[in-house]
């Protein structure tokens, strides 16, 4: 069973996607399940995880409504204000929906790299763990050291680094990112997504450009803590769905059959507590 561990849907008329504007080009339109179904079939994707794209609970409920009616949906990672003193109540309310698998604040937009270390956020992370939810860390390289500190405070919380921490591939940045990723990978509760790399690559999207980053991720996390995701439709700014899937398959071709099963499905299922038929 192949799982896409990271993609989005949005409806512009909802009005809470502040980052979406006409300047975003081909991304500035609605993206719905019917826009993705053919790509999933072509690449043999059995199910997907829907990820929040707006910092509102309203969008989280919107994604949960889609998940209730779309057969390909395996779970939703939503949003709530982790700095709020009401986060306990809000998180408990969201967690009542069985399709909610995790929470994702939009950390990449926070100017303070230590945002995640705030006392109220730390309390919210405890609640997320208690509720059995996962935590998606949408971070940039400048947040990685603080993420390590937060992880040490919550060693029982399942954390996944979205888009491999967004390394600055276009600028050729590698060493500092690689060191921080290696340090994070030494925490056994941290996982990582093989997603979003093309968006950070600029014109450096060839296999040889991406290989050092993917090899490092595999060496650090291994297939059982690394999961593939499309980051569709953001991906469309650089590549098509099947093109990125095929590229990821090529760049991990040295893995054995069992390891590929983990990278392209089982890791996501284990991390997000998704029940799957392992014989598929």
Characterise this structure.
This protein is of the alpha/beta class and 280 residues long. The chain has a single domain (3-271), classed as TIM Barrel, CATH 3.20.20.140. It contains 10 helices and 8 strands. The chain has helices at 33-43, 57-69, 87-95, 119-130, 144-153, 175-185, 197-201, 207-221, 241-251, 257-271, and strands spanning 3-7, 47-51, 73-78, 100-103, 134-137, 159-161, 190-194, 226-228. Strands 1-2-3-4-5-6-7-8 form an 8-stranded parallel beta sheet. The chain is globular and about 45 Å long. The N and C termini lie close together (5 Å).
SSE run:
EHEHEHEHEHEHEHHEHH
Q: Could you name the CATH topology?
A: TIM Barrel
Mean pLDDT figure: 96
The N- and C-terminal alpha carbons lie at a distance of 5 Å
Low-confidence stretches: none
The CATH superfamily turns out to be Metal-dependent hydrolases
CATH architecture grouping: Alpha-Beta Barrel
Major sheet details:
8 strands, parallel
Q: Quote the beta fraction.
A: 5-15%
DSSP helix fraction? 40-55%
Structural class: alpha/beta
Query: Over the alpha carbons, how many angstroms does the gyration radius reach?
Result: 17 Å
CATH class, named Alpha Beta
Shape, per Cα inertia axes? globular
Give the strand order, joined by hyphens, for the main sheet. 1-2-3-4-5-6-7-8
Total DSSP helices: 10
As for the number of domains, it is: 1
Count the strands?
A: 8
């Amino acid at each position: 069973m192949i799982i896409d561990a990271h993609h989005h849907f949005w409806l512009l008329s909802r009005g809470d996607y502040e980052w979406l504007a006409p300047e975003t080009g081909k991304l500035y339109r609605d993206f719905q399940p019917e826009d993705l179904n053919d790509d999933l079939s072509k690449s043999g994707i059995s199910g997907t995880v829907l990820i929040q794209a707006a910092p509102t609970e309203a969008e989280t409920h919107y994604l949960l409504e889609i998940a209730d009616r779309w057969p390909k949906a395996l779970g939703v990672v939503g949003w709530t204000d982790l700095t709020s003193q009401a986060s306990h109540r809000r998180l408990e309310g969201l967690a009542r929906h069985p399709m909610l698998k995790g929470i994702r604040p939009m950390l990449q937009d926070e100017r303070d790299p230590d945002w995640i270390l705030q006392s109220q956020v730390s309390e919210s992370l405890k609640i997320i763990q208690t509720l059995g939810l996962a935590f998606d860390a949408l971070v940039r390289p400048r947040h990685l050291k603080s993420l390590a500190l937060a992880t040490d405070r919550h060693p029982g919380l399942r954390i996944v680094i979205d888009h491999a921490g967004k390394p600055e591939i276009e600028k050729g940045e590698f060493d500092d990112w690689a060191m921080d990723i290696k340090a994070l990978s030494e925490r056994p509760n941290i996982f990582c997504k093989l997603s979003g790399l093309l968006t950070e690559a600029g014109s450096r999207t060839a296999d040889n450009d991406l290989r050092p980053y993917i090899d490092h991720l595999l060496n650090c996390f291994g297939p059982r803590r690394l999961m593939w995701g499309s980051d569709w439709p953001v991906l469309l700014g650089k590549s098509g769905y099947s093109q990125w899937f095929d590229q990821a398959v090529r760049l991990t071709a040295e893995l054995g059959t069992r390891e590929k099963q983990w990278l392209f499905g089982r890791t996501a299922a284990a991390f997000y507590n998704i029940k799957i038929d392992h014989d598929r």
